[in-house]
Amino acid sequence: xxxHLSRTVAEGRAFMQLVDGRQVDALSGERIDVLSPxxxxxxxxxxxxxxxxxxxxxxxxxxxxxEGPWSRMPAVERGRCLTRLxxxxxxxxxxxxxxxxRDTGKPIRxxxxxxxxxxxxxxxxxxxxxxxxxxxxxxxDGYTALTLREPHGVVAGIIPWNYPLQILxxxxxxxxxxxxxxxVKPAEDASLTTIRIAELALEAGIPxxxxxxxxxxxxxxxxxxxxxxxIDYVTFTGSPLTGTAIQQAxxxxxxxxxxxxxxxxxxxxxxxxxxxxxxxxxVNAIIQNGGQTCSAGSRVLIEKPVYxxxxxxxxxxxxxxxxxxxxxxxxxxxxINSRQKEKVAGMVAAAEEAGIPVLARGSIxxxxxxxGYYQEPVLFGSVDPAATIAQEEIFGPxxxxxxxxxxxxxxxxxxxxxxxxxxxxxxxDGGRQHRxxxxxxxxQVFVNGYGxxxxxxxxxxxxxxxxxxxxKGFEALYDMSATKTIVFNHG
Length: 491
Ligand code: NAI
Ligand code: MG
Description:
Elements: H1 3-8, E1 13-14, E2 17-19, E3 22-24, E4 31-36, E5 41-47, H2 51-67, H3 75-91, H4 93-104, H5 108-128, E6 136-137, E7 143-151, E8 154-158, H6 164-177, E9 181-185, H7 192-203, E10 211-213, H8 218-227, E11 233-237, H9 240-251, E12 256-260, E13 266-269, H10 275-287, E14 299-303, H11 304-319, E15 322-323, H12 338-353, E16 358-361, E17 363-364, E18 378-380, H13 388-391, E19 398-404, H14 406-414, E20 422-426, H15 430-439, E21 444-447, E22 467-468, H16 475-479, E23 481-489
Parallel strand pairs: 1-5, 8-9, 8-11, 9-10, 11-12, 13-14, 13-20, 14-19, 15-17, 18-19, 20-21
Antiparallel strand pairs: 2-3, 4-5, 6-7, 7-23, 12-22, 16-18
Bound molecules: 1,4-dihydronicotinamide adenine dinucleotide (NAI) and magnesium ion.
Magnesium ion binds next to strand 4 and helix 4.
């Protein structure tokens, strides 16, 4: 794939929603401009769904669930549909990577990585479909008791703009594997690959109405979807504030939710660590996708004896990082939109004003269009753990360093935010690896490594304000289903 495709893909295309297997515009005919964050220019459009569009899509998913065949299809056949979708995503990989890259501004290499991740989800859940089963339970004499895993029914998936291909795939893979039907609303800033995947799903043999896509603003389409009485379960990835709104909406119908709400994830570097091995991982964990990653490693805690050395080495690497257009494939692309760019730049300026030392700054490529949403990487040193940049999710290429003394203080600092999504621990001491991994409050802990978003097989989700429920891996299949207990009295 050349850069050419990611510069021209979908030019001028008026995208449609996918409801009941058909391409449909918004009932109002209203549209939303689609722009490339690399230059801020409009290149396509998507429908702006309202309440009536949402209702049409939910009715379609409810019909598909109640009338079948999807929810009653043998699991192996559902699995084959997902496996065919995996193959189609692979076949259209170049186009999907170019589309994702142009729509979100991410470097084309990251777009390709996201296609690989998405493929793996469809492959994994295609294979997992017929490998999940219930129990038989020892009960009273004369009885046999057993459990089945049953689909919730109609699942609403509300998807953010940072990793649409991958986050969509983890929702679709697990929800469809268990026999649910779906209404998905991608983010208004990044809907294009979701529409393409739903088209490919039809081609893969997933019946009409099983996987519906509506596009539109969160406050209109998203709010109507999460409050719809025929939605049986809601899964959401995004900001804690929107998560609260969605949970309140789902609560009006007393329905369950999975919430993945970001983090302030720490990496802890002890003095005995292999620092050369850690350095590139520490940088990548915050620079990947411009820091717009729920599991970004946005805090690095460094034991005092090596603090100066690690800080200097990170500063040297940060000063060489360059942001530029997606098709230039540099260290990072632009941020998603002007609002995010202003938010991140504002947090950086406030931290500087508060006197937090800037250790290094990357740069913006001189050829990057001034109309794009570029933010250069910034490295802050000796950050006060109570500072705003130490506590709040920035969602940009901004890394904070914190010196610490000993294991106890490291754990206290690591756990000293409202979040608990991912953590990294760097040490050669085996006992300490286990102690720290157990005491850090995070849904995933990596020892001598860090996987920002990596590992589709690995259960993923938060403690505390990072959310609840688990996605990815086998565990997501439990979130996407409910246990039914059947008791036979046979005397
Ligand atoms: P957001 O959480 O508002 O948007 C995510 C999704 O929710 C989008 O599809 C949006 O249309 C939808 N949405 C928005 N309001 C809704 C509502 N009332 N009801 C139902 N759906 C709704 O995130 P936003 O405003 O784009 O970004 C703000 C901040 O959120 C970022 O700076 C970042 O800190 C955080 N964020 C975290 C993500 C993560 O992966 N954890 C992903 C995206 C944003
Ligand atoms: Mg876009």
